[in-house]
Structures are given as structure tokens and as C-alpha cells.
Amino acid sequence: MSDPPPAPLLTLRGIGKSFLGVRVLDGVDLEVAPGEVHAVVGENGAGKSTLMKIVSGGYAPDGGTVEFAGASRTFRGPRDAQRAGIGIIHQEFNLLPERTVAENVYLGHEPVRRGLVDRRAMLDRTTRLLASIGETTLPADARVGQLGVAQQQVVEIAKALALDARLLIMDEPTAALADHEVELLYGLVRRLQERGIGLLYVSHRLAEVFDLSGRITVLKDGRRVTTVDTTDTTADELVRHMVGRELSSYYPDRAAPEDRGPVRLNLRDAGNQKLRDVNLQLRAGEVLGIGGLQGSGRSALARAIFGVSPFTTGDVTLDDRPVRLRSPRTAMRAGIAYVTEDRKGEGIVARQSVLDNALLASRAVFAVRSGRTARTARVRELLAAVEVRGAGDDQEIRFLSGGNQQKVVLARWLALDPRILLFDEPTRGIDVGAKSAIHDLVRRLAREGAAVLMISSDLPELLGMSDRIVVMRDGRVAGELPAGATEEEVVALAVGTAREAAQ
Amino acid sequence: MSALSLLPARRPVPGVFVALTLALAIGWLVVLLDGGQLFNQSTTVSLLHVAAGLGLVAVGQTLVILGGSLDLSVAYVISLSTLVAAETMNGSDGAILPAIGLALAVSAGIGLFNGLLVTKLRVNAFIATLGVGLLLKGYLDNGYDGPAGTTAPSLVQSLGYQRVGPVPVSFLLLVAVTAAVWFALTRTRFGHHLVAVGGDPEVARLSGVRNDRVLVTAHVLCSMCAGLAGIYLASRLGSGAPRVGTEGLYDLESIAAVVIGGTALAGGRGGVIGTVGGVLLLASIDAIFNQLEVDAFFKQVIRGAIIIAAVAVYARRAMRKAAA
User: Fold this and answer.
1) Residues of A in Cβ contact (< 8 Å) with B198
2) Which residues of chain A make contact with B195, given a CB cutoff of 8 A?
3) For residue A208, how many other CB atoms are within 10 A of its CB?
4) Tens of pLDDT along A201-242?
5) What is the ipTM of this complex?
6) B40-319 has which fold?
7) Which of A60, B20, B65, B160 has the lowest CB atom count within 10 Å?
8) Which value, to the nearest 10 degrees, does the dihedral of the CA atoms of residues A311, A316, A318, A324 take?
9) Domain map of chain B by residue range?
10) What's the rounded Cα separation, in Å, for the pair A473 and B147?
């Protein structure tokens, strides 16, 4: 006699969601059974986070139904979902560092006796809760700010369990953990499973997906590609499901071998808090693409080169001369420009004019008086050359479209005649037309002899633009790929399934 | 598991009490060399009177600051409260209770208004309470040229001047209010929620805390503390005084006392015991300088330096904690 399969704890049917007319989720189905670990994988931007936010009440879906514990639900907010028994462990912990473990676990529903908070009961219950998930060494009255990341994660889980969560969502739970802590998490996940708690496990790291999950759902571009039993699939197959778009748009021609000049920037065993043993050469005339997942050290690399959080170990040479790039200012004076990922936060001064924004770097680096008029004239020319549209130079930059803002940022750096350009997600949030204009510009700069390093999460862009691709993983260089590499190769290096022979 | 995590959550004695002891020791010595005596009956009594007035305000201020807010209107609430109390009593002992009730009710109303501005209209607390303070200033400046009303004689005798040994009744009132607020912060849901809201409003909200309600309550309690300080000052002065709050700099001094006491200006960390330490420190320095007959302006300079030093010390500590 075989048991019938248990009724699913969570059933999603046809979930859809759009933001500002952009479809980020489209008809997604998903089921989680009690005691099951269901992994959700996909590239950056595949829609995983949005889906998790819908399950946990953060967003309302535009279409489809959410069924939880046998009833159809519409959550009005995260609290609503929590009450129903769905907990979410974010990458960023929702804990108060100044309060104790027990105070955090019972925040919002402190046990009360005769109108007063019963601290004894709070501590006892927390201790028991922690013990029930195998954590016996963590004192319930320790201040959370003193705990390590792994222990804070335990506190988060205890907090969800204190609310009787029956479904737990874990969003990249190992991203912040050290290797030995990952083992502890594995044990924790298994104990949660034994208690019949369903887990939705979102992760980039295929190794742990295979270690932990019973089923895997692959998302791509907001759609569900497939759901498979973990035992029936392989890492290679998953990667194939995760990628595989066509290179539809047009990209400018790559550099011919004779265009590639000497090595401009050379990193040897360079590292800092977020990077380890990075060896990298950047040549004049080339576009070097940097691939990898979020948090893999791509941006950290650009920020280290530009002196925002400088390298602390290893050697950096610029045109064969050793340099120490300790601050953005020294980097700028050495001829390096950096177009940041966070345009709104770090790229533009929203309430200043287009012209002021374009002059920002020149004004900072050059003495105030020297050749002011000439410089202004030069910047006006550059603004015209990059074809900033829809505004005069005196318009506040916040009224421009993202693409035009990005062009102004470019003009700002071109005014310094940089020899090395670092682009971090240069076309994120930019419409198609402006995108190809920026691609052309990037290529033209390389052709004129600049050395370009370009970080991009947009795989077609990365493959279409780069003369070489270096893929980062966990703060290290995971491997290098030549022009003409496939998306599978990039993703395989980024998630770590590829044999390291790819180097 | 690191040994660090085994440290108990109870924080050690706030540094402010170390500073207080030091200040009193040095002050005692300096006054002695000057040929005086710091700890005689009259200086102790006046020190504790100063502490009582400022302390009542600062204890209330602690609540709103812990919750991540601020109240700049307290000085005007104090002035208004002295007037409401004194005018309602009008010299009659029979009207004491209604007068106190009315003064506290008016204060609570202002606190409610502050709280609603901060939570419902999302006006920055600095601006909202400054604006409410200016509204009150307008009313006070327009309606009063000088003292008005008469405090009931028996209240003047009791709250204003009565002592138990060297300890004024008003200071005992401060001790009682402090104990009540300490109890509320550590043993009630309101207290736990308030500290959570100040620590991280988003975490609090996602944990089911009704942030707005908690913050409004804190503002009401803060204003009532200021109102109580006003009643005390009315019993001290014998009448309502339309400028007593601003002339005593109760707004900025109360905030200074809270910060010196180790409560984070951004909220989420600290407590009312430290605040009382801060109040005693400020009052002691006052007493020492009075004994030495130091120039009033120089006194201000020293107080400013102490406030800056205190904040710098806490900032360094926070940095070291972050680095650890």
C-alpha cells in the first residue's frame, strides 16, 4: 500500500506581474509540499525575487491564484502572510542589532502576563525554540549585534518559527555565510524538513540546490521553464534551461587583433575584503567584459580599481608602472573613469543642471581657474557629441530619461580624456534606442585606444560587446572566455558547475 | 561559536556615571582649593532642584528619541503648563487637582498633535515640533507680558520647597517618574515596540508593530512629562511664567542630557537611567560653576564642550563595536 502524495502546502497557478508595463512574471505555476525543499533557480532578473515577494505578501500578483494550506489567499501585506504561516528569510536580515535574541524573536508578539512582558517566558520559549532546531549554544539574552552572520540567520529562522510558520522562504541563504557555516545551515534545513515545514529555496549556487532540494523549478525571463525532480537532472541541464536566448540585437563590430594595444592595467594577486587573488590584464583598444552573479565581486573589482574601496594586497601596474590607487581622486588623475551601477545614487546630482553634472569631474580634478571657459566649451561639445536629447544644458538632470542621464555621465568622464574606462551595468534601466547608442560609444572609445572594462548582468550584451570575458565568482576570477563564448559557458562559470579546466 | 556571543546583553553602567563621579570629585577639589565647600546643604538642595526640573523634561524626551523622533516644543509646553496650572488654581488650594489635571491634559493634547504630525502627515519630527513650538510661542507672546496666575500655597510648600533631608520632594517625583518610565520601557510591550521602532521602523512594521500608535503614545508621554515639569516650576515660582521654558533652555538641554546619557540620537538604543545621569552631570557642573562664581558665558562654553565630547566618545565606541 503506498501513501497518497501529501496535499500541497502552497500552490501557485498562473502567477503574473508587471511593473510599469514590463512583464516580469508570466503564468508561473509552482507547488510546495509539507516537508519539501523546493529550489527556485534562474539568472539575475529571471523573476525569482518578485515571485518570492508575491508568496510572502510583499507584492500582489496581477494575475493567477495563491493557495496556501488548502485555501485561496490574497495577502494584503507581509504581516498578513506571516499570520497565515509564511515566513521569509531575506538576504538582508530583519533584526534589531541592539536588542537581544529573545526580544527579536518575539518582537510584535511578546508574551504577556498581567499586562506586563513576561521576560522569563520569553527567554525560556526562545531557548526551547532554538533547541528545537538544534541550536543549543546560543544564549537567548545575547545581543544580536554581537552574533555572527550564521547565528543571526538562526535567529531569523527562530523568529519565523515563533509565528508558527509552515512555509519558509529562504532567499540566497548562503550568500553571506562562510563555508563551514553552510554545513550548519544544511543541518538546519533538514530539521525544518523533519518538522514538516515546506521550504522555498532560492539560490544561485547549484551545488547546494542539488544537496538540499527535492524538486527544482527553473525560471527564465519571468516564465517557468520547467520543474524537475532533483534526482532526475544534472547541473549542465539546469544551466541549459536557465539560459538560451538568441542574440537578437545588433552590436558593433569587435576589435580586430591589430587594434589590441599594449597592457594598460595589470592586476597581480590583487585583493581586498571582497576580492581575493585577482589576476587580470586590461589592454588598450579592447572591451573586457566582466560576468558573474550579483555579489560575486564584479562591482567590487571596479570599485577597487577606481580607489573607492582600494586593493589591500597584490600589485597594480598602470602602463607598466606600479601605482597605488587609494582614492577616486588618484584614480582619476591616473586617467581612470568609472560609470557606476547606481546611476541615481552615485552617478548624477539630480537637482543640478545637465552642464553642472557634466562638469563635475573636471571641476573636481582641475584647479578652479585654469581654462574654465575652454573646459565648459569642451563639455558642451561632448554633450552634443554623445547626443543628449530632449533638454538644454541648463535643465535639471532629473528630468531627463535614464538613457540621456547616462550619456551626460559619459560626457563627464570623457572630458577627462580617460585612458581606462570602467562601466558597471552601463545600460541598466535604459531604453533600447539609447542602449545601442551607448554600445556604439563604448566601442568607439575602445577603437580610439581606450581600455574598457564593462560589467554586465545582461548576458546578450556581455557576449555581444566583449572581446574577452572574465567571469567572477566569490570574489575570485572563476575563468576567462574568448569572444564568441556562449551563455551556458558564462553561467556555468558563474554558478560554479564548470570544471575549472575552463581556465 | 565565538566567545563574544556569550557576553550578556545587559550593558555595563553607562559611562555618564563615571563622568558624573569624576566631575563631582574634581569639582569638590577645585571648590575646596577655592576655599568653599561643594557638598553643603544649600548647594546640594539647589543642585537637586535644577535636576528635578530638567530631569522631568529629559525623561520624556528620552522616550521620543528612543523611538527615533524628537521634541523641540517642550520648552513652550513647559511655559504653557505653568500658566494653565497657576491660572486655574488662582491661589486656591481647592483647585490643585483640577489645575494639575488640566495642565497635563493640555500638554497631552499638544503631544498628540506632535505625534500625529510626525506619523500621519510624515512631517520630519524636527520641523513638526519646532513648528508646534512656534505656534505656542505666538500664543504665549501675544497673551502674556509677564507672570500670571497664582500657584496654590500648599502646592508651593509641598512640591516647590518641601524636603526629605536634603532631597526635595520634586526630586523624589523625578525618581518616581523615572522608575515608571524605566518599567514601561523594559516590562511593557509598548516599551519593547518603541525601541524597535527607533531601531528600525521597517523591521518593527514587518514584525507586526503598529509603529504610528507607538510613536504617538511616546509623544503624548513626552509632552506630559514637560507639562509635569511646568507644574513643578509653577510651584517653585509661585505663578505662571510665560518664558520660563525657553529661558531655561529646556528643549536643547533635555536633548543634551539624553544624548550624554548614552541614548542614540537616531533612536533604538539607550535608556532613561543614563538620561538621569546626564541630567545630574549637567546640574552638577552648574552647581560647581556657581560655587566658583564662573562667568555665565564661560559656563556655556564648558557645557558645549562637554556635550560635544560626550557624543564623540559614543561615536568612537559605536565605531569600535562596528569594527569588532
Assistant:
1) none
2) 96, 98-99
3) 18
4) 998 778 889 999 999 999 988 889 999 999 998 888 888 888
5) 0.85
6) ABC transporter involved in vitamin B12 uptake, BtuC (1.10.3470)
7) A60
8) 50
9) 40-319
10) 74
